[in-house]
Amino acid sequence: MSKVHWAKQAESGSYLGIRTLLWFYRFGGKWLLQVVLVPVLLYFVCINQRARQASRQFLQRVHATAAEHSSFRSEPGLWQIFLHFYSFAYEALAKIDGWLGRIGPERLNTIGNITFDDIVRQQKGGVLIGSHLGNVELSRAMASRKYSTRIHVLVFTRHAVAFNKALQQTNHMVETNMVQVDTITPALAIQMREWIDNNEFIVIVGDRMSVSTPEQAIWCDFLGHPAPFAIGPWVLASVLECPVYLLFCLRQGDHYALTLQHFSDQIVLPRKQRQQALQQYVSAYAAVLQGFALLYPYQWFNFFDFWHLPEAGKDK
Fold this sequence. Notes:
46% of the residues lie in helices and 17% in strands. The protein is α/β, with parallel strands linked by helices. Strand 3 (151-155), helix 6 (161-170) and strand 4 form a beta-alpha-beta unit.
């Protein structure tokens, strides 16, 4: 499988195409859009070989790791790959519903060892480390309606320009507090420290390699194979000297489970044991991510070869 960096993969679908699908949704409702999506997704499954292979690889490794507890009766094939793509499209629609206010708080179940109410009451900013498992954007949309506390999201949006443009047209608040980054500059680091000092929160994903330095990775076991994880979120959290929480928003039927886990009061990276400390933190994150991936395999939205280091030239 090609080792193209995830950020260099072209976005699937033009702005016009996405707006057309939203038109179907607006005037025909969810049922009509779901019907229209079937041929569209079949087309993408057929032409996007890289994403199709990545889906197959991930689903098969979930099946092998879960063994007798697997949610699949047999080794996943084309039908399961299609359902994987369909789940991705469904959650893209849920993002729009979230910003339009169509998903109410009654459909959100909060679980985990801490709630957002708890961390807001602490009056201390922090870092929320998410992933591309589930729908973190939906949780941000719902939180923006309930809390006045600012939540800043560090994103790399160039690979999804069309969808983000369409999403922003549904609600101007989408772009508020979104910070597009390629690298963490000193100026941005100072700005983020001010956010934390003002009891605000920063969201960053921990399952995507750095855009500028993909070779800076920590290798951890993930679904039975070594996988590279970025060090950036953990280094950033150590510099900000603030509490760290893990964030997941996962669909359960017609509802969503918002999971917040207190991860650490502070990420500490001693100079002499920096690598060992990073290994410990990242391994703990990878273990939690794997646990949820086994439970919700169709909500894994990394459609690239997750187990290879992009542009490294050598498989681990």
